[in-house]
């Protein structure tokens, strides 16, 4: 009998030892990287949070993929320091007079990391791949500006109908359905990056491992150990390689903000986000940087559900919200309070911020709120306000804001509201099914244009989720999209936002921002209100 | 013995079957879909995806094909991460979680027994008080709190160990400490109390009277019997440590299985939920099965009783 025990214990031991040796190998890998670093190479240590969803540019449509893709590959345009799109893989861009046809002339010296030239065919291949309904790319809707794109993507049209073509190896032509001012900005999104056709045809899984990955950006994918880390090294084939300063970038995948910060403190990361608990303590740190992020934290009414069927009641609740107090005492992360829906970061044809021109459309005013509520209740003939429940997806920060709103409604309107938290995935489903009266929401821009934010609320848009429908508003958005004159377009959008903030199917709370810590000596990392982290010109001294 | 093991083994299969069935229906009862996203993809694309993942078929067909996937141990591709199959995720994450769990158990058992024995032998002396104070603290502090404190002190302030990730033996020290402290404290307390009991037994007095060396009495005579309660709770501890790794893995950015387990539920990633749940419960049940067998080996009396009772 004893033999049994001995055998069992030995088996456990062998298991453990075998497992140990496996990870010791991994250990030697990283120490090699470490020693290379001390040899005078510039290695930047970043954190990606988690495993990138995919390095197939059509599939990796989220922040954890964009951060890497934007540096591994390059589209026709790229955002510069002032977040404006400039020529990248394209050397020059010709736009037809009606604003519908774009001709991109691709650089002679633009090469893939395997040394082959980047061709117009690679772009045609990649964009068709994105629109192919079989690919099921979550990014495809961004390409609906292109003639024939929507039809092909929803299965009604054919791939030949998509108006993209390679006139020759270095000339790529695109025809749009409407003059879209933001088009050159939209195509800075990684889903519009080219794909090396020969590689992808031969091996459809080319993007899943570092060995088979072929890119055309400032960096190459040197290694990728899934769910652990990945490493970039400078791409010598890149057309602008002489302006790339870093030799390597090491990306960890640390998903806990406290751990990330502690690694930063211990010197294992050069850049870190700020854990919520630390934001107050760190707000004066010289290593802290803040940047706008185009997007809005807001609440949606269900306009088909009492009491929010009444416009004045909606307005009353909106004016009862003290946005300043929320950013100052609740979120405490340096966000800007939102007095309108469209966030900062968009300059009009006259160089003015959209937000400044559109002005403050809703701002805390307890007296006005009280009065509006009375008027609204009178209109409806209510002696008592129908019960109100605020719903939010489970998270500490959402809860803090919801509790503050509960308190502010009580103070300003003398209304008691219930709170309800719901698990995130259920919340999303039920919000789309209009199951909530008043629910927490957020919007992050897909592309850098105010119309992207406003078009969410056209009738039956999947982003609407309020059951609100307004013909005049729909009309203005349609006009803005067809307008070729920038100034007139801008005016139309400002007018549309006024309607939105008057009808008030939603009320805004604050705009988003990007806050990060960065060690001294790190320079040139570009971040944009709408866009992806750019390490092309980053440097470490 | 053989019959007993066979019976336990069959029970094990039934348990796994029940867990798998419950998980399947609970998972589908929860609102939300793996294909739900903040943006709406168009209907054709949605239909393509549903067809690909067989979500368009009636529930009982899905259930059958999923039962088949358990038998063949092929759970298909993840929905959130279509480039990878569930089997790949398991093959990647499990060895790491297993390694972390096993090292933790070894550390907890060995140090817990030593600590408990020392406390019992020096009953009501300094060592006893110190060890038990340590044990109470160890039991009271949740491992995720301990983890953060350890990182802050040992990694950030004193720079002795790397704060996170899983790349070298040095990286293992902090997570293992964080995870092992609680179970170690429990084992130490148990060992101490049962050791105290055993030390007053007649056969120990007899051994002393015979002039056997004290060390030999402790190791050969006392400890063997004192360890029975420890083996009894090993099953519970194992479960505790394995689920504890979820939190610890996240804090220390260890690429183990915990992440897939938790994320899959948040994402409603059906194949991954099923794969991780079934795999994990099967593993856990198997470990409990092993503990039971070891238990029988350690104490011949129990095995005999069970055998008589069962047959």
From TrEMBL, chain B:
Membrane topology of the entry: Multi-pass membrane protein
Ranges for domain ABC transmembrane type-1: 94-295
InterPro entries membership: BPD_transp_1_N (IPR045621), MetI-like (IPR000515), MetI-like_sf (IPR035906)
Assigned keywords, A-Z: Cell membrane, Membrane, Transmembrane, Transmembrane helix, Transport
Segments passing through the bilayer: 9-30, 100-121, 133-152, 172-191, 226-248, 278-298
Family: Belongs to the binding-protein-dependent transport system permease family.
Protein name in the entry: ABC transporter permease
Organism: Planococcus maritimus
Lineage of source species: Bacteria, Bacillati, Bacillota, Bacilli, Bacillales
